[in-house]
Every structure is written in C-alpha cells, then in structure tokens.
Amino acid sequence: MPYTESGVSMLVLARKDEDEPTMWVFLEPLTKDLWMATVVFMVVTGLFVWMIENPINEEFKGSKWKQFSTSFYFAFSTWTFTHDQKFKSLQSKVIVVSWCFVMLVIVQSYTASLSSMLTAKRLQPSVTDPRQLLHNGHYVGYQNGSFVHSMLRRLRFEERWIKVCSTQEEYAKALKLGSKNGGVSAIFDETPYINSFLLQYGKGFQKVGPIDRTVGFGFVSSLNLSPSLGAC
C-alpha cells in the first residue's frame, strides 16, 4: 500500500550563505595535512626515481641543475599526468605506476569536491531549532484546526506568540513579513503539507525537521470506491 511518512516539521525562510568563494577556494577540497603529504610524497617519488635512473638513464644525467629540474619536473607533472620521461628500471616503473594510481584517486576526489563546492546551492535555513524561536520571543504559525497547536503549547510557546494560518498563501506572506513586521519566523505543520507547500513556493523557503513524529498517511482504494486517504 502506498505510504508517506508524516511528522511535524518547521517551515522557515532560507537565507543565502554569506561565505562567498574566495580566490583560494581551489585549496579547500583537500585538508592542509593532505596537501602537505601530497607534496612530500611527490618530492620523495621524484628523488627515488632519480636515484634509480641516474646511473642507467641518460635523461636523468647531466649537470646538477639538469638532474634537479628533470627529477622535480617529473614529480610535479604526475599531478596532471604529463610526464614524458622513459624509464629503464623495473623498480622505477613500479614506483611510477603506483604513484600515478594514487594521484588518479586524489585528482578525481579533488575535482568532485571542488565542483560540488562551486555549484551547490548556498542556502541555509534561517532557523534550525524551535528553542531559538522561544529564546528570541519570535512568532510562530500553524494550520488552522491542526493538532499542532497543542504541540506548540507543549513546547512552551505562549499563546500570544502563536498565530493561525489557513492557506499556503498566508504561509508565504507571514514568513516573508517576519516576526518584526506582523508575520512569523516559522510555520509548524505536518511534513506532507510542508512538502506540498515547497513544491509550489520552494524558492526562498526550507524545511527543518521533522520536529515531532506522528503517524504516516496510507493511500487505499478498492474496485467500488474512489481512492481515499487514511491515517495509519
């Protein structure tokens, strides 16, 4: 039988995250320790490859500056997989293949994290806990005739801080006005009704919760009766 989870949730305004991306955002996907470990292992890998290849490979010979630049160019080019040195030692090949596999995992994780940070919606609920509303003396709303009123009283909201709303339009208007302008800071209602509201007025609003658990809704039908809605 089709079933939808119920419960009482809180509907609040969504506010834009004030932390805008900075010029150093490309460093944020990896932790400081991971950045340091990656650089250290790059250098160590380049050093080991140079030590193995120097006696047998002409590409790693020459002046000290040439040896230094070749080794470190190889080490840092593995980040973008653009190294073009030819290795003659089996040990070098094993080290390089192993390190390239590690770099592949790091690069893929880095790319996914950075993309998520740059494209994810930076919206946060303006209120996350009913206790914030109680502490600050904010007005709250509920659907006319709903049992949510008794729940609000149980949460110790005084009657003077509780307002009745009857339609989704009133929900949106009251939340946009806010407590200081004759509206409310949050609407408490059953989760399915809030989900329905968000389908129509989703932009600028967010659901928090569920705050309280209730029975869900089950949808039943028969051959002789039209579909009906009942509490489970």
Label this structure with key terms.
232 residues; alpha+beta; D-Maltodextrin-Binding Protein, domain 2; 2 domains; six-stranded mixed beta sheet; three-stranded antiparallel beta sheet; 7 helices; 9 strands; disordered C terminus; receptor
What does this 3D model show about the protein?
By secondary structure, the protein is an alpha+beta fold. It folds into 2 domains: 3-18 and 123-231, 3-Layer(aba) Sandwich (D-Maltodextrin-Binding Protein, domain 2), CATH 3.40.190.10; 25-119. It is 44% helix and 19% strand. Strands 2, 3, 4, 5, 6 and 7 form a 6-stranded mixed β-sheet that branches. A 3-stranded antiparallel β-sheet has the order 1-8-9, with no helix packed on it. Strand 8 and strand 9 form a beta hairpin. Helix 1 crosses helix 2 and helix 1 runs antiparallel to helix 3 (90-119). The longest helix is centred in the middle third of the chain and has 30 residues, at 90-119. The protein is rod-shaped.
